[in-house]
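Table 4 source record.
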Amino acid sequence: MSQNGNKHDSPLVVIAIGGNSLIKDDRHRSVMDQYRAVGETASHIIPIVREGYRVVVTHGNGPQVGFILLRSDMARNVLHQVPLASCVADTQGAIGYQIAQTLRNELRLKGMNREVAALVTQVVVDNGDPGFDHPDKPIGPFMTEEEARQRKENEGWVVGEDAGRGWRRLVPAPAPLEIVELDAIRALLERGTLVVAVGGGGIPVVREPDGMLTGRDAVIDKDAASCVLANELDASVMIMSTSVDKVALNYGTPQQVDIDLMNAAESRRYLGEGHFAAGSMRPKIEAALTFLEQGGERVVITQPHHLQEALHGIHGTHIVP
């Protein structure tokens, strides 16, 4: 395939970078730490671009949105508070800038002349989505149970345990229905541009009866929104970059078994058996199943440094129809 990557018939890969994978640990969560983590991930995306694939990069923002909300809460006696929808937009701009810049720099180092564009993206949700009444999406830093309960009592937060990893703030997470800037993303891809879009699952908006858009305070699951985008763009493969090499059964127990390959029926069975935690792997498996049901060929889940090898079947967990 051509390195120019502008052939309309070259396969399209959607690469979803997890928000937590941009923060390695509690000691490395500053803006510069995140920039370095983004740079490492970018270096593993460029070989895929060099092979001739068209690429769209999406990303999570759960920790970063939580940081903004925490700053806003702490400064509420000095400045106005930041609405959740604006927090999503802010992180799209900041993380999108980091990803686009590091990708552009990596392309330059490799002698590749490609444009990169990060697009602030809105995603339509249903105003009556039950997710608005039942906040269950974890954001922000991990806390002890004591800290979480103090936040609940003092700040009115909804809190909950996140996949056995600690306690976090929970916010509404309606299902994504439509990518508002889909045509713009298509146009950029047709020009051969490497696109960063649907950051943090997109800015949640509702479509009013007159067609006007209005923001809603919520977050959208990044994997679910990436799935909608991948299906709308007829992507061949969706890769979910996360903090583990492979999906596992009985994760974190002596009976843990890593999975190299599973089909949709097996994935549904494992979901039903409770192997995948709601705040961790479950949304990824659910998004993978939706992608495959709507025509996708393959989903891969792995760590960022395995991206190219995973695309060729060497690393990661592969989910097929």
